[in-house]
Specification:
- This protein is mostly beta strands and 191 residues long.
- The protein contains one helix and twelve strands, in the order ββββββββββββα.
- The strands form two sheets. It has a six-stranded antiparallel sheet with strand order 1-12-11-8-4-5.
- It is globular and about 55 Å long.
Length: 191
């Protein structure tokens, strides 16, 4: 497994984060459905929550297509296994303002299910992501910088010295990594 860091260029835009801290965000993911006769492609949003006293250790818990956070603060509100539909195919809502003070970092990533053989982001047509707080887009882009990868982080939310949540964009790709292996690795290094 090899990691690749993507540059903040080309298909990625960012805006400044409000000084009051981030309270609630929505992460959206969309991609085009596979052409007729091809197996469907399934991308998944994964969020890992880390304890403030161990922000680089193992996640306290993960949220993905089969789970939600124990306290209901992070939920997957829309899930697609094919990329069919209008707008964003997968949507995850993170209510950071409700997270207990014991949590200091939340990493958000995307992994491609590898059910029908090796599939990298470069094989997925129209794959894009968006991170928004209300109507304000914090980050929007595509996966061109990590085209050879099968999973990638998009960014992380961290508490600052005042306990307010701030967003740090950070594209880091992982090659030959399915969702299970990705979930064990993606939060180990700061973005």
């Amino acid at each position: 497994m090899r990691t690749t860091r993507g540059a903040a260029q080309g298909g990625e835009t960012t805006v400044s984060v409000p000084s009051k801290g981030i309270e609630k965000v929505e992460v959206g993911l969309r991609w085009d459905a596979s052409p007729m006769g091809h197996a469907p492609v399934d991308l998944d949003i994964i969020a890992g929550t880390f304890r403030a006293d161990d922000p680089q250790g193992a996640p306290a818990y993960l949220v993905h297509h089969d789970s939600r956070s124990p306290d209901g603060t992070i939920t997957l509100t829309r899930e697609s296994g094919t990329g069919q539909g209008f707008g964003y195919d997968e949507v995850m809502v993170l209510e950071l303002g409700r997270l207990a003070p014991e949590y200091g970092r939340v990493v958000v990533g995307v992994a491609i299910q590898q059910r029908s053989g090796p599939t990298a982001f470069g094989d997925v047509r129209g794959a894009e992501y968006r991170v928004a707080e209300g109507y304000t887009e914090l980050l929007k882009g595509d996966f061109a910088a990590v085209a050879t990868c099968t999973a990638a982080t998009v960014g992380e939310f961290v508490r600052d010295g005042l306990g307010l949540w701030q967003f740090r964009p950070g594209m880091r790709g992982f090659e030959d990594t399915g969702p299970t292996a990705f979930a064990a690795l993606f939060g180990r290094d700061p973005l």
